[in-house]
């Protein structure tokens, strides 16, 4: 077997670990928590299905690639729920450094230039400066909202999330890349928060 193929198989075996990383958000029927691999796969479909909402300049297939790899660093770090106390520290220097180290290790398993290309794609997603990365980041925030709504509140109940917190931590990021989607999502979720005095 060739050395590049050995490295590709090593990477593919390593990323299987993402299936064991539990997230705070339950699946739609509220029967269990979603894992990070399921989240990534679902986001890839969100990118395809909601492509008509993408801003000019968005490369939807590039966004699909970003979304398939964006959480691979959770193999090393686990998931930090956005509404947990640690979740508001996602932008901290320590978290960013740990994620960068994990990305270097995981993408470093691949042969060059493939590993370098995927690593650069991960950095583009994290920076959220290109139209494609902004689109992908917005989708990353939409999907858990839809699951929480479908599951009767999900992690919103667990973390006692208020409407203001949701708008600040999630809504602003969705609206940045998908304003029409955020408007439609708001109409669906606002009654849930209003009914509970949140």
UniProtKB/TrEMBL annotation:
UniProt keyword list: Hydrolase, Metal-binding
One GO cellular component term: cytoplasm
SUPFAM superfamilies, sorted: HD-domain/PDEase-like (SSF109604)
GO molecular function, one term: metal ion binding
Top-rank lineage group of the source organism: Bacteria
Signal sequence interval, chain numbering: none
Listed Pfam families: HD_3
InterPro entries linked to this entry: HD_domain, YfbR/HDDC2
HD domain span: 15-182
PANTHER family named in the record: 5'-DEOXYNUCLEOTIDASE HDDC2
Protein name per Swiss-Prot or TrEMBL: Hydrolase
Source organism per UniProt: Rhodobacter xanthinilyticus
């Amino acid at each position: 077997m060739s050395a590049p193929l050995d490295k590709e198989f090593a990477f593919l075996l390593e990323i299987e670990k993402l299936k064991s990383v539990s997230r705070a958000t339950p699946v739609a029927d509220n029967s269990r928590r979603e894992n990070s691999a399921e989240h990534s796969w679902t986001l890839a479909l969100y990118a395809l299905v909601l492509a008509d909402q993408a801003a000019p300049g968005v490369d939807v297939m590039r966004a699909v690639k970003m979304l398939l790899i964006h959480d691979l660093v959770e193999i090393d770090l686990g998931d930090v729920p956005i509404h947990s106390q640690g979740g508001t520290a996602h932008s901290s220097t320590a978290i960013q450094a740990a994620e960068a180290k994990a990305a270097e290790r995981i993408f470093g398993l691949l042969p060059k230039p493939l590993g370098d290309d995927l690593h650069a794609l991960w950095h583009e997603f994290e920076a959220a400066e290109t139209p494609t990365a902004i689109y992908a980041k917005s989708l990353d925030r939409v999907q858990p909202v839809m699951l929480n709504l479908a599951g009767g509140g999900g992690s919103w109940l667990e973390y006692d999330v208020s409407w203001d917190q949701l708008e600040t931590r999630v809504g602003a990021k969705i609206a940045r890349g998908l304003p029409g989607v955020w408007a439609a999502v708001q109409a669906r979720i606002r009654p849930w928060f209003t009914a509970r005095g949140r």
